[in-house]
Amino acid sequence: MDTSNTTAFILARIQFGFTIGFHIIFPAITIGLASFLAVLEALWLKTGREAYRDLYYHWSKIFAVNFGMGVVSGVVMAWQFGTNWSRFAYFAGGITGPLLTYEVLTAFFLEAGFLGVMLFGWNRVGRGLHFLATSMVALGTLVSMFWILSSNSWMQTPQGYRIIDGRAVPVDWLAVVFNPSFPFRLAHMAIAAFLATACFVGASSAWHLRRRNDNTPIRTALSMAMWMAVIVAPIQAVVGDAHGLNTLEHQPAKIAAIEGHWENIPGQPSPLILFGWPDMKAEQTRFAVEVPVLGSIILTHSLTRQIPALKSFPPEDRPDSTIVFWSFRAMVGMGLLMIAMGLWALLLRLRGKLYSSRPFLAFAQWMGAAGLIALLAGWVTTEVGRQPWVIYGVMRTVDATSPTPPAQVGLSLALFVVVYFALFGTGILYILRLVRKGPEPHEGERVTEGGAGRSRTPARPLSAAPERVERAPTQE
Predict the structure, then answer these.
(1) CB-based contacts of 118: which residues, under 8 Å, 6+ apart?
(2) Residues near 128 by beta carbon (within 8 Å), at least 6 away in sequence
(3) In the prediction, which pLDDT does 476 show?
(4) pLDDT digits (tens, 9 = 90+) for 178-205
(5) Tell me: the pLDDT tens digits for 221-273?
(6) Which of 157, 270, 275, 295 has the fewest CB atoms within 10 Å, counting from its CB?
(7) Is the peptide bond before 461 cis (omega within 30 degrees of 0)?
């Protein structure tokens, strides 16, 4: 590859990584908030407690803004397949294209069909129909995740295809959709979305409680978020372990890079490197802090089996261990903090101090981004760990690019950076303003009826959010 092609290749990878890094934040929160809203409405219908309805009104506004930004940020992903990754689209489009089409025909239509009723139907339809709309939107977000993860997982563990005339042709759609890594990655991603949302909701509630903005909806939100953390965060650790065993079977080079493990000593179990600095050129992990035998125990569930070593793979087939070594540890570190937060909350709950412990509330507030950090770190681990393959073992990433001049790729990248930070930065700030306002008791009673020509007639999803957000009180 000449210098020009190399530059274009690097810029194309940076561009895709930048756009998907921005995009993934919004679908993750959308998935979590949609299910949260469905649970809130179900609890309100069952118990009649106004706190659940007040929370629904508050978080549905945030959901509407987040949903809009998720849709907009995702549109450019398909565009990039055609401009920067046309060889990949030509080779694998017969598989990835239909999978993404199924997502549109099922999830997107389901969400679009019921979103308006969910956001604007409180005073227009019956309670049962409104709950059905909320449930269908929540289901739509999960169905969307199903198809997106199926497509991406096929790229990680391709099955059910043949290469005919230089193109991947599906021969068994069940094998394509339910490829070996798909069930593990689907469960891992779904739980990550729920935990990211729980951290977000919990941090919002903790922020208000620290400022003496104490009411029943805020306490209810904190309680629900902490129940999610204490129950689901340990489950995520178990699912992550199963995912790791699956990766060891199908992508051993990725595991070796994650562990920064370069070579095995014959007859000895593998250690676990807690910290260090993998040096790809020197083929060693510098400053390694090791725990003997623990690598074999965690990754193979055995006292004798060894984990793969990077030196057993050709240099051109090795992922960048320097990146995935630390991204994986960032993900695990955030996961351990979420487990600790859940256990701390449980202890305080038993002592009747969940809503009054200042140190805990400060910790919960600063954990607001922990779920998203873990999610982003996990995606870096997954995608960088797959390299140098775009379709693992089948097509190299360098062979998937378009013959696009570097100047064009660089210009589009620069435009993306400017527009994304301006547009989505503004959207994120607006979401934080909504969070800062907080849920108010009996908020829904102040919603006016809509109708032709009236100000509450919806014209777009973002209409669900108020046009003006007043600053919340900041007194201590």
Answers:
(1) 37, 60, 130, 133, 134, 137
(2) none
(3) 38
(4) 999 999 999 999 999 999 999 999 999 9
(5) 999 999 999 999 999 999 999 999 999 999 999 999 999 888 888 888 888 88
(6) 275
(7) no
Instruction: Check if the beta carbon of residue 84 is closer than 8 Å to that of residue 401.
Output: yes
Tell me which DSSP letter residue 164 carries.
Answer: E
Q: What share of the chain is helix, strand, coil (3-state, %, to 5)?
A: 70, 5, 25
Q: Which residue has the higher pLDDT, 453 or 362?
A: 362
Query: How many angstroms separate the first and last alpha carbons of the chain?
Result: 61
Q: Do residues 233 and 335 lie in contact, with contact meaning Cβ atoms separated by under 8 Å?
A: yes
Q: What is the pLDDT of residue 474?
A: 46
Tell me the β-bridge partners of 279. Answer: 284
* Cis geometry, peptide bond prior to residue 315 (ω within 30 degrees of 0): no
Q: What is the four-CA torsion angle of 389, 395, 398, 401, rounded to 10 degrees?
A: -120
Determine the length of the chain: 476
Distance CA 450, CA 452 (A): 7
| Helix, strand or coil, per DSSP, at residue 453 | coil
- Distance, in Å, from the CA atom of 373 to the CA atom of 25, rounded to the nearest integer, reads 9
Structure tokens at 79: 């565009």
Q: Report the distance separating Cα 247 and Cα 254, nearest Å.
A: 7
In this prediction, residue 155 carries a pLDDT of 94
